[in-house]
Automatic annotation (TrEMBL):
Transmembrane segment boundaries: 12-34
Keywords: Membrane, Methylation, Transmembrane, Transmembrane helix
Coiled-coil ranges (or none): none
Protein name per UniProt: Type IV pilus assembly protein PilE
Presence of keyword Membrane: yes
Organism: Halopseudomonas salegens
Upper classification of the organism: Bacteria, Pseudomonadati, Pseudomonadota, Gammaproteobacteria, Pseudomonadales
A single Gene Ontology CC term: type II protein secretion system complex
């Protein structure tokens, strides 16, 4: 009977068990990190939309200063903030309640679809500070 000589050389590389342990650890980290990342992105997008709406409000106030009234409808107001109307995350809707009062509602879409709508109401002509109705974005 012939025996092969035993090699004293160690083999190089990883065993299947070592690779599987790494895969499990990476999977656990991803399962914890992804929901947190998604919430962070939704919060960031909501704040970005709020800033865009405030720019829109500023443009509407400029329009009112020149014309003594807000735009008549959503189509007329779109020209003041085209970037808001092309957003991938919110669909805005402008409503003029009177010559001196308007409401902007931003309905979520895309990755923001699980969030609530945001609503900004101007004042009534005497109360020009405006107010937000967005208790909880996401």
């Amino acid at each position: 009977m012939m025996f092969r000589p035993v090699s004293q050389q160690r083999s190089r590389g990883f065993t299947l068990i070592e690779v599987m342990i790494v895969v499990v650890i990476v999977g656990i980290l991803a399962a914890v990190a992804y929901p947190s990342y998604t919430r962070y992105m939704q919060s960031t997008r909501a704040e970005e939309a709020k800033a865009m709406i405030m720019d829109y409000v500023s443009a509407l106030e400029g329009f009112r200063a020149k014309n003594f009234a807000y735009p008549a409808d959503n189509n007329a107001a779109k020209t003041l903030a085209p970037e808001l109307y092309t957003s991938d995350f919110y669909t805005p809707n402008y409503t003029r309640n009177s010559q001196h009062d308007f409401t902007i509602t931003a309905a979520p879409k895309g990755m923001m679809s699980g969030c609530q709508s945001m609503q900004y109401s101007s004042g009534d002509g005497l109360n020009q500070h405006g107010s937000w109705d967005d208790d909880k974005h996401c």
